Structure formats: structure tokens, C-alpha cells
Amino acid sequence: MPAEFKMEAVELVTISDIQPREENYLALERGNILYFPRTPFAFPEEERELLRSTGLSSSSHHKNIAYRPAEDKVTGFDPAAVSDPEKLRDVMRTYSERALAFLWKLLPRYMETARIDFASFRPQEEEGRDLATKKRNDLLHVDAFPTRPTGGDMILRFFTNIHQTKPRVWTTSDPFSVLAPRYASAAGLGEVASHPKGSLGARVLGAFGGVDAKRSAYDRFMLGFHDYLKFNGEYQESCAKYRFEFPPDSTWMVFTDVVPHSVLSGRYALEQTVIVRRDTLARRENAPIEILQGLCGRQLA
Ligand SMILES: [Fe+2]
Q1: CB-based contact 224:187 (threshold 8 Å)
Q2: Are 140 and 243 in contact (CB under 8 A)?
Q3: Concatenated DSSP letters for 230-266?
């Protein structure tokens, strides 16, 4: 008998205060987007303007301008178009600090043990961007970082649209709890699960697939799943789609490994990522690793 899957739409949850509330954790973990119509901290216009005047380095492989909080370093910008790199770094650092302070107020249980990842600035217009399929932002995907495996913890991203007039337009689809039962097996879950971290099988697959055998099976699966979804025309065509327009000055946050997402248009978005430990979730069974382990009956990290 074919399994039946509950359809679960992704909703925009508008919040007006910054109290830590259980329903905010639950909304995020179920795959909803927490949304502030106005950015909920000070962000002076001159800082926004400095960012909008900063271009992406054309000579590099960078997709975005990145800020690494641990090293206090900015990469990916066009040095010819930035008169004062230190000022750019100050603005990126300030955004990162404010976003993190805000997350501490809203989601303290996550933040107590979360790992602070990069912040980024996305200066390019997303509509019509010419990128290789794997890198395209306009195809639905769940996030996985090639250089920063999570070991089963989760990718929470906090975004702010600093365009003066244009919204940032996203499409999302049903969350991981709906996606995985349909596609994880076809995407190779059984194969990955049968080759634990460091095993001969994982080393062989790693050598051929270019994926490091030292990664957990979970991280290997998620990297492959990111690509699988982007290359799957049937999925891109037929899946449920929810369109969201994030207006200028709005802020939103979402687990981008739980919610398939794509960016259709918009430019000048800022973003801060934190890696949330799955043992701090309100409902641990919401974590993609738990969903996958339930499907394949094996430990993946
Ligand atoms: Fe993404």
C-alpha cells in the first residue's frame, strides 16, 4: 500500500515582539519562516548605502561577499570598487553582531550552544543570473555547505533585505518531513547509510564522488541531496510552491536545510548563519537527520 504523506505548507509567521516564545521555536522547526516586516534593530541608512555600493569580485568564484566573524575578515568583494575595505568590514561586523544579539533575545535556547557561522552580503540581482546548475539560486534546494559539515546539526539563516524599493522574492516548498519520504531513497540514502564515516566504502565513494570520506554519512547525503533536487526536473516542476515577497527593510529567518527554497529575484540581501545543535530543538524529531535515520533505520552521524 503506498504511504500517504501529509502536505504541510510553509507559512510566514509574522512576529511583533522579541520575547523568547516556545511557538517561535516550533514554527521554525516545522519549516515555517519567522518574519519581521521591519528590521528589528538599528541599521543606519549610511551603512546600507555603503553595502549597496559594494560589488562582487568579478575575478573570483565567490557567489557572495562573506564575513567570517571568528577571523573578522571579509572576502569576495571587488577591491577596485571599495575605497575603504576596513569600513566595509566594520559594517559587516556590525550587522553580524546585531543579528546575533537579536537571535539571542528571540531564540536563547538555540544560541546557548549554536556555532556562529558566516554572514554574507548578496549584491547581485538574482533574476537572470548566469550560474552553473549546482550553484543556481533559482532552483529549489535544501542547504548543505561543502566546506562546513554540520554533523547532523541544523542551518538557521537570518536575512535582511536592504534594497531601497525592490522585494526579495522566494519560492519555497514543503519541508523536509514531506520531502524526504518521497525523494531520499532515490537520492541515494540507502547507499550513503551503508557506508559510515571513515569506512572503506565511504573512502571509495569519496574518491569517486569528490566528497570527503571523513564527513558523516548525514553530511554526505545532504550535499548530494542539494544537487539531486536542483537536477531533478520532475521535482522542480511538480512540487508544491509557495511564493513569498520580502519587502525592503524586512527581516526573516528559516532553517534552510528543512525548507526547500529558491530566490527568483531581488538584490542586496544580508544574511547571518548559525548552526543550531539538534539537542536544543523543541522537537528533536524535526531535525532532518532524525527524519533520515527513521527512514533508513541507521545512525548517520
Ligand atoms: Fe540556499
Answers
A1: yes
A2: no
A3: HH-HHHHHHS--EEEEE-TT-EEEEETTTS-EEEEE-
Q: Collect all residues with Cβ–Cβ distance below 8 Å to 21 and sequence separation of at least 6.
A: none
Q: How far is the CA of 19 from the centre of ligand 1 (A)?
A: 27
CA 255–ligand 1 middle distance (angstroms): 10
Output the pLDDT for position 45.
95
- pLDDT tens digits along 49-99: 999 988 777 655 677 899 999 999 999 888 877 778 899 999 999 999 999
Residue 259's nearest CA partner among 184, 141, 153, 175 is 175
| Grid cell locating 256 | 534552510
- Tell me how far the alpha carbon of residue 26 lies from the centroid of ligand 1, in angstroms: 21
Residue with cell 542539494: 226
Which residue, 57, 58, 60, is CA-closest to 85? 57
What residues have their beta carbon closer than 5 A to ion ligand 1?
A: 143
* Global confidence as pTM: 0.91
**pLDDT (mean) for 183-192:** 95
**Average pLDDT score over the chain:** 90
**Who's near 271: CB < 8 A, 6+ residues apart?**
119, 120, 121, 122, 157, 158, 159, 160
pLDDT at 3: 41
What pLDDT, on a 0 to 100 scale, did the predictor assign at position 5? Answer: 44
For residue 274, the CA-to-ligand 1 centroid distance in Å is 14
User: For the domain bounded by 12-174+244-285, which CATH number is listed?
Assistant: 2.60.120
Q: Which helix (H) or strand (E) holds 106?
A: helix 85-106
Q: Residue 200: is its pLDDT beyond 90?
A: no
Integer Cα distance of 125 and 287 in angstroms: 32
